[in-house]
UniProtKB/TrEMBL annotation:
One of its GO terms (molecular function) is kinase activity. The active site is at 185 (tele-phosphohistidine intermediate), 483 (proton donor). It is found in: Cytoplasm. This is Phosphoenolpyruvate-protein phosphotransferase. Residues 249-521 form the PEP-utilising enzyme C-terminal domain. General (non sugar-specific) component of the phosphoenolpyruvate-dependent sugar phosphotransferase system (sugar PTS). This major carbohydrate active-transport system catalyzes the phosphorylation of incoming sugar substrates concomitantly with their translocation across the cell membrane. Enzyme I transfers the phosphoryl group from phosphoenolpyruvate (PEP) to the phosphoryl carrier protein (HPr). Phosphoenolpyruvate binds at residues 287, 323, 435-436, 446. Belongs to the PEP-utilizing enzyme family. Mg(2+) binds at residues 412, 436.
Length: 552
């Protein structure tokens, strides 16, 4: 057997196939003095930047879904006025359009890389746009994804959205990249489309075309030229996973039959039909603020009621958890708080902002109670960003007073997790928002690329807090849901159930994989995984310990 390369696996799939590498990028344009006038070079640059933007946008439209959004963002990069000005300045100093475009994009790229994390991972997008513009200037084909007749494992430095949008998924067995981390586009695409992927693999670019490899996302291993036994074991596991995924239909449950209802996170009623089709057993988080992000004034009771009725009608007899407007930091709502704050994540946000504008909160609860009365869904309401027992009492009392029968709180702040027993003495349920809980536990702004590596819900400190809420749920007999991104990570979902979560809510595209993973383990196993994760020293160790215990 050949070498084993290592990287970060996305999901738990496994695939066997032959390597096909992305074509190498275009060579760097030479730094020659232009023979044309600066105006003529600027016109060439302008035309090619516009053409690249138009082509990228067209691809986005053809691809649809999340690819459309990322490609749209890329098209904007080619139209960025600061960047275009920088190209002009470089042309004025005597450079060719090709060289000026190359340098201007490279300078912007370096800036993003120096910011690290999420921003650093967007650097690949800029490289891709730059290459496309330079190719257009030269009149050559843009570098792109290979499209052979046979299935293959695509090996690349990293994939840009323009590449991922064009992948023929019926032929791509797996993705292996040398760069990129768990939040890169390759990783996002792999999760969304359930493609086997290992990212950040050192040595990946030395893999020669047609080499056979085994790509194991569960372990992050890429085995080069596998022997017969390794190959056969990998194929057997791939077949098992495929069978498990298609067998796992119906309500979410562990292998021993313990039910774990699988719910959807939605931001508008538009996603309801898709969620139902993907098997959502209800809604675990309806983010009402998404309906009003562009509003300058508070929505009226009638406006809100119409939206809620539309959502509730899609889930007759099912549980629908509606969150009161969650304003602040990543979700600004000017009608709730437009003050400039030094630290908006620690500011007047969530329930604090609602309380400071109680008439708006009352209108929302009234609209929801009226929608509830006119439909057959089982409506639950919860408050965002609750940090004290007193706030819990305030919200639940008001919600009940206004006619809502099931009132709970989100646990997103460590103080609420630590006092979960007292919070659940009053609230009907708790729903853990792991995105914010991780942000506050690790003291790392979830929007800041430079600290993105801290935003990992596998961190044992976060899991310990989840465990506190789980324990309180068991003693009080009240439900504890999870509605942050953590619930969409199949193996972490099992750990969360082991820690006491009774329902999981996620974006609908994640439901199938989480359902299949839950069906593999019993509650005892889930609890054992939870103990393993809790005794780790870091997120990386926790993930590795549970992955290895869960791998047959
Ligand atoms: C969370 O914080 O985990 C959560 C679900 O809420 P949001 O992502 O909308 O802040
Ligand atoms: Mg939150």
């Amino acid at each position: 057997m050949g070498d084993v390369l290592h990287g970060t696996g996305i999901g738990r799939g496994i695939a066997v196939g032959t390597v096909l590498r992305m074509p190498e990028p275009l060579p760097e344009p030479a730094d020659d003095t232009s023979a044309l006038t600066p105006d003529a070079e600027k016109e060439r640059a302008r035309a090619s930047l516009a053409a690249a933007a138009a082509i990228i946008r067209l691809r986005g439209e053809r691809a649809g879904g999340s690819a459309k959004e990322v490609l749209e963002a890329q098209a904007f990069m080619a139209e960025d006025p600061t960047l275009i000005d920088d190209v002009g300045v470089r042309i004025d100093s005597g450079k060719t359009a090709e060289r000026a475009v190359y340098e201007a994009f490279a300078a912007f790229r370096d800036l993003l890389v120096s910011m690290g994390g999420y921003m650093g991972e967007r650097a690949t997008d800029l490289d891709d746009v730059s290459q496309r513009v330079v190719a257009h200037l030269r009149g050559v084909a843009a570098p792109g994804v290979p499209d052979p007749e046979h299935p293959f494992v695509l090996v690349a430095r990293d994939l840009a959205p323009a590449d991922t949008a064009l992948l023929d998924l019926s032929k791509v067995l797996a993705l292996v990249t040398s760069d990129g981390g768990p939040t890169s586009h390759t990783a996002i695409l792999a999760r969304e489309k359930s493609i086997v992927a290992v990212v950040g693999v050192t040595g990946a670019l030395e893999l020669a075309d047609s080499t056979e490899i085994v790509v194991d996302a569960a372990t992050g291993d890429v085995t080069v030229a596998p022997d017969e036994a390794t190959r056969a074991a990998a194929l057997a596991r791939a077949a098992e996973l495929k069978a498990a995924r298609s067998a796992a239909t119906g309500p979410g449950a562990l292998a021993d039959g313990t039910p774990v209802p699988l719910l959807a996170n939605l931001g508008s009623a538009d996603g309801a039909a898709d969620a139902v089709e993907k098997g959502a057993e209800g809604v675990g988080l309806f983010r009402t603020e998404f309906l009003f992000l562009d509003s300058a004034t508070a929505p009226t009771v009638e406006e809100q009621k119409a939206q809620y009725v539309r959502l509730l009608q899609a889930f007759p007899g099912k549980k629908v958890v509606v969150r009161a407007l969650d304003a602040g930091a990543d979700k600004p709502l000017s009608f709730l708080n437009d003050a400039a704050e030094e630290n908006p994540a620690l500011g007047l946000r969530g329930l604090r902002a609602l309380r400071a504008n109680e008439p708006i909160l009352r209108d929302q609860l009234r609209a929801l109670a009226e929608a509830d009365a006119e439909t057959d869904a089982d409506v639950w309401v919860m408050a965002p960003m609750v940090s004290t027992v007193e706030e819990t009492r305030y919200f639940t009392a008001l919600a009940r007073q206004l006619g809502l029968k099931t009132a709970g709180v989100m646990v997103e702040v460590p103080s609420s997790a630590l006092l979960a027993d007292r919070i659940l003495a009053d609230a009907d349920f708790a729903s853990i928002g792991t995105n914010d809980l991780t942000q506050y536990t690790l003291a790392a702004d979830r929007l800041l690329g430079s600290v993105a590596s801290f935003q990992d819900p596998w961190h044992p400190a976060v899991l310990k807090l989840v465990g506190e809420v789980g324990k309180a749920g068991r003693t009080t007999g009240k439900p504890v849901g999870i509605c942050g991104e953590a619930a969409a990570d199949p193996l972490l979902a099992v750990v969360l159930v082991g820690l006491g979560a009774t329902t999981l809510s996620m974006s609908p595209s994640a439901l199938a994989d989480v359902r299949a993973e839950l069906a593999r383990f019993t509650l005892d196993e889930a609890r054992r995984f939870a103990d393993l994760a809790l005794s780790a020293n870091s997120a990386v160790e926790a993930r590795a310990a549970v992955t290895s215990a869960a791998t047959p």
